[in-house]
Amino acid sequence: MTRRVPTSPSLREQLQAQLADCKMPGALEALDDVLRRCDDGALAPGEAIAAVLGAHIELRNARRLQTAMRSARLPAVKTLADFDFSFQPSVKREQIESLHTLGFVERKENVVLLGPPGVGKTHLALSLAVAAAQRGRRVYFTTLADLLHSLEDAQAAGRLAPRLRTLVVPSLMVIDEIGYLPITRTGAMLFFQLLSRRYEQAATILTSNKGFEDWGEIFGDDVMAAALVDRLVHHCHIVNIRGNSYRLRQHRDLARLLQQDGATRRQAPAREDATLPQG
Ligand SMILES: Nc1ncnc2c1ncn2[C@@H]1O[C@H](COP(=O)(O)OP(=O)(O)OP(=O)(O)O)[C@@H](O)[C@H]1O
Ligand SMILES: [Mg+2]
Protein backbone atom coordinates (compact mmCIF):
# COMPACT_ATOMS: atom_id res chain seq x y z
CA MET A 1 0.00 0.00 0.00
CA THR A 2 1.32 3.48 -0.82
CA ARG A 3 1.90 5.75 2.13
CA ARG A 4 -0.40 8.76 2.25
CA VAL A 5 1.53 12.06 2.38
CA PRO A 6 -0.45 14.91 3.97
CA THR A 7 -0.68 18.05 1.89
CA SER A 8 2.15 20.40 2.84
CA PRO A 9 1.35 24.05 3.58
CA SER A 10 3.47 25.11 0.59
CA LEU A 11 1.55 22.83 -1.81
CA ARG A 12 -1.72 24.19 -0.42
CA GLU A 13 -0.52 27.74 -1.02
CA GLN A 14 0.62 26.85 -4.54
CA LEU A 15 -2.80 25.35 -5.34
CA GLN A 16 -4.57 28.40 -3.92
CA ALA A 17 -2.42 30.72 -6.04
CA GLN A 18 -3.00 28.64 -9.17
CA LEU A 19 -6.77 28.54 -8.71
CA ALA A 20 -6.84 32.29 -8.06
CA ASP A 21 -4.70 32.86 -11.17
CA CYS A 22 -7.12 30.73 -13.22
CA LYS A 23 -10.03 32.74 -11.75
CA MET A 24 -11.70 29.69 -10.23
CA PRO A 25 -13.29 31.07 -7.01
CA GLY A 26 -15.63 28.07 -6.55
CA ALA A 27 -12.70 25.68 -6.69
CA LEU A 28 -10.65 27.91 -4.40
CA GLU A 29 -13.42 27.88 -1.83
CA ALA A 30 -13.73 24.10 -1.99
CA LEU A 31 -9.97 23.45 -1.90
CA ASP A 32 -9.42 23.23 1.88
CA ASP A 33 -12.27 20.80 2.34
CA VAL A 34 -11.17 18.63 -0.59
CA LEU A 35 -7.55 18.53 0.65
CA ARG A 36 -8.72 17.63 4.15
CA ARG A 37 -10.78 14.75 2.77
CA CYS A 38 -7.77 13.64 0.70
CA ASP A 39 -5.53 13.73 3.75
CA ASP A 40 -8.14 11.70 5.68
CA GLY A 41 -8.17 9.13 2.89
CA ALA A 42 -11.83 9.79 2.09
CA LEU A 43 -11.05 10.93 -1.48
CA ALA A 44 -8.86 9.30 -4.10
CA PRO A 45 -6.76 11.72 -6.24
CA GLY A 46 -9.13 11.45 -9.20
CA GLU A 47 -12.11 12.12 -6.95
CA ALA A 48 -10.34 15.15 -5.49
CA ILE A 49 -9.78 16.65 -8.95
CA ALA A 50 -13.43 15.97 -9.84
CA ALA A 51 -14.59 17.62 -6.59
CA VAL A 52 -12.51 20.77 -7.18
CA LEU A 53 -13.63 21.09 -10.82
CA GLY A 54 -17.23 20.30 -9.83
CA ALA A 55 -17.17 23.16 -7.28
CA HIS A 56 -15.83 25.50 -9.98
CA ILE A 57 -18.53 24.49 -12.49
CA GLU A 58 -21.31 24.75 -9.89
CA LEU A 59 -20.40 28.32 -8.91
CA ARG A 60 -19.82 29.35 -12.55
CA ASN A 61 -23.23 27.97 -13.58
CA ALA A 62 -24.97 29.66 -10.65
CA ARG A 63 -23.38 32.98 -11.62
CA ARG A 64 -24.25 32.55 -15.28
CA LEU A 65 -27.82 31.83 -14.29
CA GLN A 66 -27.91 34.90 -12.02
CA THR A 67 -26.72 37.08 -14.90
CA ALA A 68 -29.15 35.42 -17.30
CA MET A 69 -32.04 36.00 -14.91
CA ARG A 70 -31.44 39.71 -15.43
CA SER A 71 -30.36 39.89 -19.06
CA ALA A 72 -32.52 37.05 -20.40
CA ARG A 73 -35.57 38.26 -18.44
CA LEU A 74 -36.41 34.76 -17.26
CA PRO A 75 -39.57 35.14 -15.14
CA ALA A 76 -38.69 32.13 -12.97
CA VAL A 77 -36.17 29.33 -12.66
CA LYS A 78 -37.66 25.98 -13.66
CA THR A 79 -35.64 22.84 -14.12
CA LEU A 80 -36.04 19.45 -15.72
CA ALA A 81 -35.57 17.88 -12.27
CA ASP A 82 -38.71 19.72 -11.06
CA PHE A 83 -40.83 18.39 -13.94
CA ASP A 84 -43.07 15.50 -12.89
CA PHE A 85 -43.26 13.26 -15.96
CA SER A 86 -45.70 10.90 -14.24
CA PHE A 87 -48.24 13.74 -14.10
CA GLN A 88 -47.98 14.32 -17.86
CA PRO A 89 -47.64 10.92 -19.61
CA SER A 90 -48.00 12.45 -23.10
CA VAL A 91 -44.61 14.11 -22.62
CA LYS A 92 -41.86 11.75 -23.75
CA ARG A 93 -39.05 11.84 -21.23
CA GLU A 94 -36.40 10.83 -23.82
CA GLN A 95 -37.40 13.65 -26.15
CA ILE A 96 -37.28 16.25 -23.37
CA GLU A 97 -33.99 14.93 -21.94
CA SER A 98 -32.50 14.89 -25.42
CA LEU A 99 -33.57 18.53 -25.96
CA HIS A 100 -31.85 19.43 -22.68
CA THR A 101 -28.51 18.33 -24.16
CA LEU A 102 -29.00 21.51 -26.25
CA GLY A 103 -27.95 20.06 -29.60
CA PHE A 104 -30.88 21.98 -31.09
CA VAL A 105 -29.29 25.28 -29.98
CA GLU A 106 -26.00 24.36 -31.68
CA ARG A 107 -27.88 23.29 -34.81
CA LYS A 108 -30.06 26.46 -34.73
CA GLU A 109 -33.26 24.44 -34.68
CA ASN A 110 -36.63 25.32 -33.16
CA VAL A 111 -38.80 23.79 -30.48
CA VAL A 112 -42.56 24.26 -30.41
CA LEU A 113 -44.44 23.32 -27.25
CA LEU A 114 -48.17 22.95 -27.86
CA GLY A 115 -50.94 22.19 -25.39
CA PRO A 116 -53.79 23.50 -23.27
CA PRO A 117 -53.29 25.75 -20.19
CA GLY A 118 -51.20 24.54 -17.27
CA VAL A 119 -49.65 21.46 -18.88
CA GLY A 120 -46.06 22.67 -18.46
CA LYS A 121 -45.22 24.46 -21.74
CA THR A 122 -43.64 27.48 -20.06
CA HIS A 123 -42.00 25.23 -17.44
CA LEU A 124 -40.21 23.18 -20.12
CA ALA A 125 -39.34 26.25 -22.19
CA LEU A 126 -37.82 27.85 -19.08
CA SER A 127 -35.90 24.74 -18.09
CA LEU A 128 -34.36 24.65 -21.58
CA ALA A 129 -33.53 28.37 -21.29
CA VAL A 130 -31.99 27.81 -17.84
CA ALA A 131 -29.88 24.92 -19.18
CA ALA A 132 -28.69 27.06 -22.10
CA ALA A 133 -27.88 30.01 -19.80
CA GLN A 134 -25.89 27.72 -17.51
CA ARG A 135 -23.90 26.58 -20.54
CA GLY A 136 -23.03 30.19 -21.22
CA ARG A 137 -25.35 30.66 -24.18
CA ARG A 138 -27.08 33.99 -24.66
CA VAL A 139 -30.77 33.58 -23.90
CA TYR A 140 -33.79 35.87 -24.17
CA PHE A 141 -37.28 35.18 -22.83
CA THR A 142 -40.41 37.09 -23.82
CA THR A 143 -44.11 36.62 -24.27
CA LEU A 144 -45.43 37.23 -27.77
CA ALA A 145 -47.45 40.23 -26.50
CA ASP A 146 -44.36 41.90 -24.94
CA LEU A 147 -42.28 41.13 -28.00
CA LEU A 148 -44.80 42.75 -30.33
CA HIS A 149 -45.08 45.82 -28.10
CA SER A 150 -41.33 46.27 -28.21
CA LEU A 151 -41.21 45.77 -31.99
CA GLU A 152 -44.10 48.18 -32.56
CA ASP A 153 -42.40 50.79 -30.32
CA ALA A 154 -39.15 50.33 -32.23
CA GLN A 155 -40.95 50.73 -35.54
CA ALA A 156 -42.72 53.89 -34.35
CA ALA A 157 -39.34 55.30 -33.28
CA GLY A 158 -37.79 54.43 -36.66
CA ARG A 159 -35.51 51.89 -34.97
CA LEU A 160 -36.96 48.61 -36.22
CA ALA A 161 -33.86 47.47 -38.13
CA PRO A 162 -31.44 47.73 -35.17
CA ARG A 163 -34.05 46.20 -32.85
CA LEU A 164 -34.45 43.20 -35.15
CA ARG A 165 -30.64 42.87 -35.39
CA THR A 166 -30.45 42.80 -31.58
CA LEU A 167 -33.12 40.12 -31.39
CA VAL A 168 -31.21 37.84 -33.75
CA VAL A 169 -28.21 37.81 -31.38
CA PRO A 170 -29.45 35.46 -28.60
CA SER A 171 -28.53 31.83 -29.34
CA LEU A 172 -31.85 30.86 -27.79
CA MET A 173 -35.02 32.93 -27.72
CA VAL A 174 -38.20 31.82 -25.99
CA ILE A 175 -41.43 33.34 -27.29
CA ASP A 176 -44.14 32.32 -24.85
CA GLU A 177 -47.95 32.43 -25.07
CA ILE A 178 -48.76 32.47 -28.76
CA GLY A 179 -52.51 32.34 -29.16
CA TYR A 180 -53.83 33.87 -25.95
CA LEU A 181 -54.01 37.51 -27.04
CA PRO A 182 -55.18 38.88 -30.37
CA ILE A 183 -52.49 40.14 -32.72
CA THR A 184 -52.78 43.11 -35.04
CA ARG A 185 -51.83 42.77 -38.69
CA THR A 186 -48.76 44.93 -38.06
CA GLY A 187 -47.84 42.71 -35.11
CA ALA A 188 -48.15 39.62 -37.29
CA MET A 189 -45.88 41.15 -39.95
CA LEU A 190 -43.28 42.14 -37.35
CA PHE A 191 -43.33 38.65 -35.87
CA PHE A 192 -42.90 37.16 -39.33
CA GLN A 193 -39.90 39.41 -39.97
CA LEU A 194 -38.27 38.40 -36.70
CA LEU A 195 -38.73 34.68 -37.27
CA SER A 196 -37.47 35.03 -40.84
CA ARG A 197 -34.33 36.74 -39.52
CA ARG A 198 -33.73 34.05 -36.89
CA TYR A 199 -34.48 31.20 -39.32
CA GLU A 200 -31.33 29.04 -39.58
CA GLN A 201 -29.39 31.73 -37.64
CA ALA A 202 -30.43 30.93 -34.06
CA ALA A 203 -32.71 28.58 -32.11
CA THR A 204 -36.19 29.66 -31.01
CA ILE A 205 -38.65 28.03 -28.63
CA LEU A 206 -42.33 28.88 -29.07
CA THR A 207 -45.23 27.89 -26.86
CA SER A 208 -48.86 27.94 -27.86
CA ASN A 209 -52.23 26.76 -26.61
CA LYS A 210 -53.35 26.42 -30.24
CA GLY A 211 -52.37 23.88 -32.88
CA PHE A 212 -50.75 25.13 -36.12
CA GLU A 213 -54.09 24.76 -37.90
CA ASP A 214 -55.36 27.70 -35.81
CA TRP A 215 -52.38 29.99 -36.40
CA GLY A 216 -54.01 31.60 -39.44
CA GLU A 217 -56.75 32.80 -37.12
CA ILE A 218 -54.25 34.01 -34.47
CA PHE A 219 -52.26 36.02 -37.04
CA GLY A 220 -55.33 37.13 -38.98
CA ASP A 221 -53.74 35.99 -42.24
CA ASP A 222 -53.70 32.38 -43.48
CA VAL A 223 -51.01 32.99 -46.11
CA MET A 224 -48.58 34.63 -43.71
CA ALA A 225 -49.27 32.04 -41.00
CA ALA A 226 -48.56 29.26 -43.52
CA ALA A 227 -45.25 30.89 -44.54
CA LEU A 228 -44.36 31.36 -40.88
CA VAL A 229 -45.17 27.78 -39.89
CA ASP A 230 -43.25 26.57 -42.97
CA ARG A 231 -40.02 28.29 -41.80
CA LEU A 232 -40.64 27.33 -38.21
CA VAL A 233 -41.10 23.61 -38.71
CA HIS A 234 -38.31 23.17 -41.26
CA HIS A 235 -35.84 22.31 -38.45
CA CYS A 236 -38.17 21.77 -35.53
CA HIS A 237 -38.91 19.58 -32.56
CA ILE A 238 -42.59 19.55 -31.71
CA VAL A 239 -43.74 18.66 -28.22
CA ASN A 240 -47.47 18.20 -28.21
CA ILE A 241 -48.73 17.95 -24.64
CA ARG A 242 -52.16 16.53 -24.03
CA GLY A 243 -53.23 16.28 -20.42
CA ASN A 244 -54.54 18.00 -17.35
CA SER A 245 -53.47 21.34 -15.97
CA TYR A 246 -50.89 20.97 -13.23
CA ARG A 247 -52.36 24.10 -11.68
CA LEU A 248 -55.67 22.26 -11.23
CA ARG A 249 -54.18 19.00 -9.95
CA GLN A 250 -55.83 19.45 -6.58
CA HIS A 251 -59.19 20.11 -8.25
CA ARG A 252 -59.72 16.99 -10.34
CA ASP A 253 -63.45 17.48 -10.93
CA LEU A 254 -63.00 21.04 -12.13
CA ALA A 255 -60.13 19.94 -14.40
CA ARG A 256 -62.31 17.20 -15.94
CA LEU A 257 -65.13 19.66 -16.58
CA LEU A 258 -62.80 22.17 -18.25
CA GLN A 259 -61.24 19.43 -20.35
CA GLN A 260 -64.65 18.17 -21.55
CA ASP A 261 -65.69 21.71 -22.38
CA GLY A 262 -62.45 22.30 -24.32
CA ALA A 263 -62.81 19.03 -26.22
CA THR A 264 -66.32 19.86 -27.41
CA ARG A 265 -65.25 23.32 -28.56
CA ARG A 266 -62.04 22.25 -30.26
CA GLN A 267 -62.57 21.62 -33.93
CA ALA A 268 -59.42 19.87 -35.07
CA PRO A 269 -57.26 17.62 -32.89
CA ALA A 270 -53.70 18.77 -32.25
CA ARG A 271 -50.92 17.22 -34.32
CA GLU A 272 -49.16 14.09 -33.14
CA ASP A 273 -45.91 14.50 -31.20
CA ALA A 274 -43.20 14.64 -33.74
CA THR A 275 -39.66 15.61 -34.44
CA LEU A 276 -39.78 16.64 -38.05
CA PRO A 277 -37.13 15.17 -40.31
CA GLN A 278 -34.36 17.50 -41.41
CA GLY A 279 -33.54 18.59 -44.92
N1 LIG B 1 -45.44 18.06 -14.98
C1 LIG B 1 -45.17 19.06 -14.13
N2 LIG B 1 -44.39 18.85 -13.05
C2 LIG B 1 -44.14 19.84 -12.16
N3 LIG B 1 -44.64 21.10 -12.25
C3 LIG B 1 -45.41 21.37 -13.32
C4 LIG B 1 -45.72 20.38 -14.30
N4 LIG B 1 -46.51 20.94 -15.23
C5 LIG B 1 -46.68 22.21 -14.86
N5 LIG B 1 -46.04 22.48 -13.70
C6 LIG B 1 -46.08 23.73 -12.95
O1 LIG B 1 -47.42 24.21 -13.05
C7 LIG B 1 -47.47 25.60 -13.30
C8 LIG B 1 -48.12 25.85 -14.65
O2 LIG B 1 -47.29 25.32 -15.67
P1 LIG B 1 -46.88 26.19 -16.97
O3 LIG B 1 -46.85 27.62 -16.60
O4 LIG B 1 -45.65 25.61 -17.54
O5 LIG B 1 -48.12 25.88 -17.88
P2 LIG B 1 -48.39 26.32 -19.38
O6 LIG B 1 -48.58 25.08 -20.18
O7 LIG B 1 -47.34 27.27 -19.81
O8 LIG B 1 -49.80 27.04 -19.22
P3 LIG B 1 -50.38 28.35 -19.95
O9 LIG B 1 -50.80 27.93 -21.33
O10 LIG B 1 -51.56 28.73 -19.11
O11 LIG B 1 -49.32 29.40 -19.97
C9 LIG B 1 -46.01 26.07 -13.23
O12 LIG B 1 -45.77 26.49 -11.90
C10 LIG B 1 -45.21 24.81 -13.54
O13 LIG B 1 -43.94 24.86 -12.96
MG1 LIG C 1 -47.37 29.29 -20.11
What does this structure look like?
The chain has helices at residues 9-21, 25-39, 45-71, 93-99, 103-106, 121-134, 144-156, 160-168, 185-198, 215-219, 222-234, 252-265; strands at residues 110-114, 139-143, 172-178, 203-208, 236-240, 274-275. By secondary structure, the chain is of the alpha/beta class. The protein folds into 2 domains: 9-71, no CATH class; 80-275, P-loop containing nucleotide triphosphate hydrolases (Rossmann fold, 3-Layer(aba) Sandwich). Helix 2 packs antiparallel against helix 3 (45-71), helix 8 (160-168) crosses helix 9 and helix 9 packs parallel to helix 11 (222-234). It is globular, with a radius of gyration of 24 Å. The protein starts with 8 loop residues before the first helix and ends with a strand. The structure holds adenosine-5'-triphosphate and magnesium ion (MG). Residues 78, 82-84, 87-88, 115, 117-123, 177, 207, 209, 246-247 line the site of adenosine-5'-triphosphate. Adenosine-5'-triphosphate (ATP) binds next to helix 6.
